[in-house]
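go over this record:
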Amino acid sequence: MNIRGRFASGDGLAYIPPMAIFPRPVSPKSALGDLWGYFREQRPHKWPALGVSMAITWVIVWTFITDANTNTMPTRNKIFYVQSWNADRSDAAIILQQKMDLARREVLLQKRQKDMQGVADLFGIDWRQEEARNSARRKEALAAINAQLDSRLAKAKQAEGAPQP
């Protein structure tokens, strides 16, 4: 007996039908017919499945819409407030304002540090050694800045007291 006649190789492939690689295209009419047939049947999970599928679809569409509008819209009508100063303001007044701003900034920084230290305590992060080292550095820097501002303030007050040419 011929071995080639028994196996599905070579010319003997006639008994194996050709296999489709891709399914046949589905027409919208047949898809609607399948959907209508699904809804006509009495199934207990029909409505929950429909609700879940609609919710998932809505979340996906909403995510795309939200992502498309994130950081793409122009920032119109954004108002920036700036402080207005007199043109004839003295150097001493400017330096005093800088000293007040520096003190205000330091108070806000310490408040923010306390908040962050509370968060670090919640997560078990050890911050006390670094805080001691950094606060010593900050005190040195603040002392140097305040000394510099004080010397400038003294020069500005001395210049104000001198007669103008």
Residues 128-161 form the longest helix (34 residues). The CA atoms of residues 2 and 19 lie 26 Å apart. The two ends are 128 Å apart (CA to CA).
